[in-house]
């Protein structure tokens, strides 16, 4: 990271999460290349045009001619927007004044990500739970955090760990659990062409790891 070129992110939650991921070696491997989003869209468009030409596609065809531009926009603004911490959801955690200490579980959060090995879709769902300590978080914010990390080139194991680590940092507790069940289209559509296999990854922290009954309460009911 070049010193002094980075614009400070005004979203404190983004900074907390980023620092926590770096400290635990869980950050996506990224290199600051100095390109702004407009430059990124333009360069992806140019490169994708070349890929299509190499494939022998006719870029003067009106169905294909705008594809490079669409891909540039889609990569930067949509499916890989989670590489940009400026897009991190606005999160406010609030003090746990009600002294809640029972498990809060959000099940079946829809998740679409992209396999970083093949750049094709990972399609699945996440279940996330935590046991409040001093902080609580709006439930929809958990969905947004899952969505943010899903919008990166990913491996499912890292995605699972990143959601865990982000919530542990924001909620100031180790007592967080994340499970993701997903179909990888790189498995379904190519390679072994297994149409029905799912991959389940689970990341457990604190009591979810050390207390069998807490672990059991989280894991039961997962499809
Ligand atoms: Zn893949």
Automatic annotation (TrEMBL):
**Keywords, comma-separated and alphabetical:** GTP-binding, Hydrolase, Metal-binding, Nucleotide-binding, One-carbon metabolism, Zinc
Q: Name one GO molecular function term.
A: zinc ion binding
Q: What is this protein called?
A: GTP cyclohydrolase 1
Q: Which GO terms describe its cellular component?
A: cytoplasm
Assembly and binders: Homopolymer.
- The highest taxon in the source lineage is Bacteria
**A Gene Ontology BP annotation from the UniProt entry:** tetrahydrobiopterin biosynthetic process
Family under the similarity heading = Belongs to the GTP cyclohydrolase I family.
Q: Which gene encodes it?
A: folE
Q: Which PROSITE patterns match?
A: GTP_CYCLOHYDROL_1_2
User: Reaction catalysed?
Assistant: GTP + H2O = 7,8-dihydroneopterin 3'-triphosphate + formate + H(+)
Q: Where are the transmembrane segments?
A: none
- What residues does the GTP cyclohydrolase I domain cover? 44-221
């Amino acid at each position: 990271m070049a010193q002094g070129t980075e614009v400070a992110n005004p979203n404190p939650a983004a900074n907390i999460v980023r620092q926590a991921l770096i400290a635990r070696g869980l950050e996506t491997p990224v290199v600051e290349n100095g390109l702004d989003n407009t430059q990124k869209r333009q360069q992806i468009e140019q490169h994708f045009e070349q890929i299509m030409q190499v494939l022998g596609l006719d870029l003067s065809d009106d169905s294909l001619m705008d594809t490079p531009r669409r891909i540039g926009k889609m990569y930067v603004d949509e499916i890989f927007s989670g590489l940009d911490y400026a897009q991190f959801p606005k999160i406010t955690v609030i003090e746990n004044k009600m002294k809640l200490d029972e498990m809060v579980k959000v099940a079946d959060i829809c998740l679409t990500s992209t396999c970083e090995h093949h750049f094709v879709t990972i399609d699945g769902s996440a279940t996330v739970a935590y046991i409040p300590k001093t902080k609580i978080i709006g439930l929809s914010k958990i969905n947004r955090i899952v969505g943010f990390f899903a919008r990166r080139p990913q491996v499912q194991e890292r995605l699972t760990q990143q959601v865990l680590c982000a919530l542990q940092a924001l909620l100031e507790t180790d007592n967080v659990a994340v499970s993701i069940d997903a179909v990888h289209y790189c498995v379904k559509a190519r390679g072994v062409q297994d149409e029905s296999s799912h991959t389940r990854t689970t990341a457990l922290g604190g009591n979810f790891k050390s207390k069998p009954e807490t672990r059991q309460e989280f894991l039961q009911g997962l499809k």
